[in-house]
Amino acid sequence: MKNKVAGRIRFLSVAIFLVAAFFSTKLFFLQIVKGDEYAELADRQYLKSAKTFLNRGSIYFSRRDGVLVPAATLKQQFILSLNPKLIQNPENVYELLSSQIDINKEFFQHHVERDSAYEKIADNLDQQTADQIRSLNLRGVDIAKEKKRIYPAGSLASHVVGLMSYYNNDFVGTYGLEKHYNDVLTHKQTGSFASFFAEIFLNLADEVKSSESKSPKEGDLILTIEPIVQGVLEKELESLVNKYQAEGAGAILMDPNTGDILAMAAWPDFIPGEKITDIEVLTNPLVERVFEIGSVIKPLTLAAGLDMKVITPETTYNDLGQVTIDNYQISNFDKKGRGVVDMQRVLNDSLNTGAIFVMRQMGRDSFRKYMLSFGLGQKTGIDLPGEVGGLVSNLDSQREVEYATASFGQGLAITPIGAIRAFAILANGGKLVTPRVVKSIRYKDGSEKVFEPEIKEVVISRRATDDITTMMIKAVDEALLGGILKLNDYSVAGKTGTAQIAKTDGRGYRDDAFLHAFFGFYPAYEPKIIGYFYLINPQGVDYASETIPPSFMNVAKFLLNYYQIPPDR
């Protein structure tokens, strides 16, 4: 008998334990995992309409030390509204409200006299002001909560972060990451508080099965962009634009080994969330616009020739200053010949005839193959909206002149992000990487998706990249502005480019406008950073060597110190 009683007691104890464990697990899931959703439901009790309630994930910059800095997030604010039908003494109500907030009397009277049950009077009120107005207990005066999208960093990386706007009666991301990751950032609403209690009695196995079958989607974005670096880059870019009265400008800083974008800036920029008068500034020219990039492409041409072993750094040719191809005369930038020169001189003096010489040594088919392998005609796959591919149809031509001009950067139009990806091949030993601005997604359920660097393929040999790197270092140390920008403790490989800007109708080039560009990487043999800068039609200067390199070096010196990169000299 005692054994039976003891057995029943053990059975009941186990059953009670299992039931308690079941409810504890369910309560943990609802309170911890889904606690934010129910807190949001509480907030909604203040709302007059669902349209005022915004539930959306945040976007964060990531500092060097791992600290996250909000780029886009939500802020709790309050709306003041009136129900004119319930207000009996408008004059008294106005006096009391105006003691708390700045409100125009005519504006107030206009709304209080309307035949309506709801008139919005003020928004963006803080908690203290809302509490003070609520404490007045004014009949017909309501305070409602609202969550607003704010951008604490202002214009910092505005083309990357993007913004939100109304589209088909929904408040959605329409530019930048706000658009590209709209599905991840948009968080669904739950039903009602009744579901809190109902879910306690749901089958836990069904809950687990459902969560396993549906991968999490809603979360926050953690970016590769370093906010301090972004700020330094934007300040330097603005200084360049102001100094040379340029029509526009852009710059990208990237880790050439991983494709991580450390900073990406375009001018003019904008402040997300504020009124924008010129809608054209919202598009990101770094991924959505192509440029003929000029002589910065010459290191790619020479690297291809080195990889094919049709040239070496010591290979020479007779530079006559010009060459005629298909009845077109093509000249060096200064129309001067230099006689017998080697490939180092081609880089140092940026000789168009030298680039043509290399292309001819390779042959048209091989030259085309290499240029396409550098990704110049493709989209990079960067995680930003609206990216366009390069325009490289000239490489399909039967005319040799198209290949000749392409060898020194004319006739091919590339996005800045496409250009820096191609140049990164020279910096990382020959690999084609995929640029990215999102490091990870932190989902609402506590899990995290970390994006690993994507290396597509190796397109040229380490031997070729080492050779062209050595040549580019020498060009910076000795030829660029007479060597005055050389860094004593660090090697920097770089190349300038000055290109004509095509007319908007596509028929020829503007006589009065040029694109200045510069790219470089450092420390050159084991580079941690590659940068690409461009200026659209700077005034008062003819060549890119005079405009961009000093600013590029200013940023380089800051980054070498900021990231505490050891000297390589």
- Please report the total strand number as a whole number: 22
- The gross shape turns out to be elongated
CATH top level of the largest domain is: Alpha Beta
The share of residues in helices is 25-40%
- The domain tally reads 3
In terms of DSSP E residues, the strand content is 15-25%
| CA-atom Rg in angstroms | 31 Å
Indicate the CATH architecture of the largest domain.
3-Layer(aba) Sandwich
Q: What structural category characterises the helix and strand content?
A: alpha+beta
Largest sheet, in brief, is:
7 strands, mixed
Distinct helical segment count: 20
Mean pLDDT: 88
* Spans where pLDDT lies below 50 across 5 or more residues: 38-52, 190-213
Summarize this, please?
The chain is of the alpha+beta class and 569 residues long. The chain folds into three domains: 2-33; 38-150 and 181-214, Penicillin-binding protein 2a (Domain 2) (Alpha-Beta Complex), CATH 3.90.1310; 227-562, 3-Layer(aba) Sandwich (Beta-lactamase), CATH 3.40.710.10.
